[in-house]
């Protein structure tokens, strides 16, 4: 690769002049700038990231770590792309670039994170899918890398985070279903130790108890958070003895709904007719019949909050975003549909 | 940020020893290695990417440029996440990390690409959504950055590319529909100048002509490639005078199908009953009724081919992947469903 030295020699200019021309400084005349930029293109000159980072102490890049793999986002992602959109809206103001750091599901997230930091190409990080105990949080804190977590964790180093209001979804969801006479309310939970699983189950359990309903672990349905997982849960429900089946269901993952609906039709338990459902809003959900009663939030706005809260924690940007350390639960809005209109006594086969 | 110099001073070791310890060289004893690594963690030492890149001439990172924004992937992406999965399978063999370079739809892709290259943090790039004339290809070639394109382009610098067999989809799709008596066959095309739009329309037109059917530009339906776009096309079809509507439809984008189905039900033209449809397979498509006749390919395998073909073009890896410059059209497999079983004379309201 051609460096700035070779470029300067070829043009018979000083390294300083070439550097100023390449960096768009105003004290270089247009003709020189054009000569330099043409020569840079012809010679395959690549301004080195490393050199820039060393000089300015900033790469201009923020990484968003997300997990990939056929069981996670391998069948399409309906969540992160909208969040990215919001994050980029904020970063564009500061000429920061967002890159998605794709951690394969076959890899240990902690080891991946250490490698990301060792490569050192980002100024700051956004992490997601926080685990109940998350080593990445300790690690980033120890390395003094600015970061924000999408998702709470028991691991708390006083870092900024945003999370969805899983407690609110449990409370509103259980109360709505109980009001229609449901006492056997099923929920989805992830297969791994993602923190949101624990948070939601805890809140669901508390809300049941406040209605005098005993917690039944058989009503927690664990599956992959994708279409197939939704389909599998429908079949798992049908396989239960009739009296033990849930008559209502809270599905807090938006990617599973279509498969869940379809699976319920297959097993003769049509959604909204034989099983009351409250789910999460998504672009797909708008095309379901019966209309899904769902919890909605603007993922773009969530992305904007994530980005602004991250910048608020970075000294270079804190003045523009004087929010301190943001640790915030984002509420969701209930959109009324028809999928939970039935009463408990209509349920069953 | 603490550098290696401060770390060495604090430990009273030479910079060379600290560097060897941090890089896992075998000539450093275990006790020293532990001392160095503990101190590095305590002092927030970050090995600098730039320094590494300068030393080894490699960042270990490959960037995959994709467009984001609510009209593109902002409503969820069912394609790229699976492709990433395949790419990562190959890269894991070489300890290469894949990062997604997210170019906002509000930004010029050419300017974005120039900035990505200026930041210089990736060894190689994968570009997608190639335009009919694509400046990124010229630019990457001029800068001597190894890259592969997912999608053909008229801009050809002899670079490697992979593309889906849009000609094959047009030929098989048109022939299947013509065999059922259809002569008014609608197609979807993108709103922008993505090359696949041109390629598909050309092939569709040729195939129609081989059957003696005149090309009618009113049967090209342009829309955003998402659920909403599919829904809009259904309404656009219903708004046409009856005799001018298509009786069959080729929908080559997989993200639009659910919205298309739903829109057709809304306007009283049930899919497979009043309009014959051939689409693209996706995880969502499996849950549609009537079952979608669709073109299928393994996106994971596509990702694997992309990664291997890129590595084949890089001197460091060419020996392991002796494929030369890969320029290949990937065939799709037809999955028979029920959505195109009806004959043309059953169409209409």
Please give a structural write-up.
The structure is a homodimer of 349-residue chains. Helices cover 39% and strands 16% of the residues of chain A. In chain A, helix 11 (257-266) links the parallel strand 8 (248-250) and strand 9. Chain A has a 6-stranded parallel β-sheet with strand order 2-1-3-4-5-11, with helices on both faces. A 6-stranded mixed β-sheet of chain A has the order 7-6-8-9-10-12, sandwiched between helices. Chain A folds into 3 domains: 1-41, 434 Repressor (Amino-terminal Domain) (Orthogonal Bundle); 61-159 and 299-330, Rossmann fold (3-Layer(aba) Sandwich); 166-297 and 334-346, Response regulator (Rossmann fold), CATH 3.40.50.2300. With 349 residues, the first copy, chain A, is α/β, with parallel strands linked by helices. The longest helix of chain A has 16 residues, at 195-210. Chain A is built from 12 helices and 12 strands. The interface between A and B is large, with 71 and 71 residues.
């Amino acid at each position: 690769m051609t460096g700035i030295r070779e470029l300067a020699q070829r043009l018979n200019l000083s390294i300083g002049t070439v550097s100023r021309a390449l960096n768009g400084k105003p004290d270089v005349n247009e003709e020189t700038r054009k000569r330099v930029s043409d020569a840079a293109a012809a010679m395959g000159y690549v301004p080195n990231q490393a050199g820039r980072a060393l000089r300015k102490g900033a790469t201009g890049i923020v990484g968003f770590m997300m997990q990939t793999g056929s069981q996670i986002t391998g069948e399409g992602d309906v969540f992160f792309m909208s969040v990215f959109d919001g994050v980029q809206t904020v970063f564009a103001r500061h000429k920061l670039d967002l890159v998605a750091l794709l951690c394969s599901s076959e890899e240990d997230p902690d080891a991946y994170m250490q490698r990301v930091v060792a490569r050192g190409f980002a100024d700051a990080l956004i992490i997601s899918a926080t685990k109940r105990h998350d080593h990445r949080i300790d690690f980033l804190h120890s390395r003094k890398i600015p970061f924000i977590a999408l998702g709470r964790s028991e691991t708390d180093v006083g870092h900024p985070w945003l999370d969805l209001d899983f407690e609110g979804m449990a409370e509103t969801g259980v109360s709505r279903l109980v009001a229609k006479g449901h006492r056997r309310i099923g929920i989805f939970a992830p297969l791994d130790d993602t923190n949101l699983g624990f948070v939601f189950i805890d809140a669901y359990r508390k809300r049941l108890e406040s209605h005098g309903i005993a917690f039944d672990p058989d009503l927690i349905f664990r599956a992959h958070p994708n279409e197939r997982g939704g389909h599998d849960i429908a079949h798992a429900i049908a396989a239960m003895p009739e009296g033990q089946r849930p008559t209502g269901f809270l599905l807090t993952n938006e990617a599973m709904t279509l498969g869940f609906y379809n699976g319920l039709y297959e097993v003769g338990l049509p959604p909204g007719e034989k099983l009351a459902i409250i789910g999460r809003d998504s672009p797909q959900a708008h095309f379901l019949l019966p209309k899904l009663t769902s919890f909605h939030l603007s993922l773009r706005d969530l992305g904007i909050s994530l980005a602004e809260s991250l910048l608020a924690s970075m000294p270079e940007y804190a003045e523009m975003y004087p929010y301190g350390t943001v640790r915030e639960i984002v509420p969701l809005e209930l959109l009324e549909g028809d999928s939970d209109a039935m009463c408990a006594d209509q349920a069953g086969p």
